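ok here's Branched-chain amino acid transporter AzlC:
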Amino acid sequence: MNDTPLSPKSAFWLGFRDMVPFLLIVVPFALLFGAVGTEVGLNIAQTMAFSILVIAGSSQFTALALMTENAPTFIVLLTSLAVNLRMAMYSAALVPHIGRLPLTTRAIFSYFLVDQTFAMSLNKYEANPGMTLAAKAGYFTGTFCFIAPFWYVFTLVGALVGAQIPAEFALDFAVPICFIALSAPMMRSLPHFVAAITSIIFALLFVNIPYNLGLILAAVIAMIVGAQTEQWLKNRTIS
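and the structure:
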């Protein structure tokens, strides 16, 4: 445990440097989103607006997948929101650390709250309980000042490249492949596997429900089954 005080400036550059390894994730995903976005019919400006306004890779790919299936707009929005609900849990976890910041600062931070900035910031805060509020704000600022520009720039690069790809080499297949790559690392325990299998089964059973509502129902059922499986394992451990 390191209780050495950090100045806001030092904390900023520490957060900036700590994000470097995430380039291995952010750059390929941004390139892929930009390319696939133009492949499914968005123009470059729309693809960029998507990345800048949403700045959430998983929900962006979710929206693209539904758009390729001609899902109604409200289903696209609802499903994307459901995917991003984890941000509410992220926010709650950060409240003890940066909840006393001014509202304007917190609003800005909420926009840049993504998996990487959350994970690195929370780990740093917990490992350094002596950090001041200003230092914590500086660290979080450093994380997103490094990672966000790469997301924007490489989305643009992907969109420009994707717009030049001939129709016979369409990248539509990349969306489901990307989701497999996103989902596979999350399969860390029995409840995860049970939830995943449940969602697959019910998504197939509900495939004929109008407006792709079957996907939402399958997700809800999978979450319930996964939670019950986790509770069953806890009870079994206690007993």
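+1. The chain has a mean pLDDT of 84.
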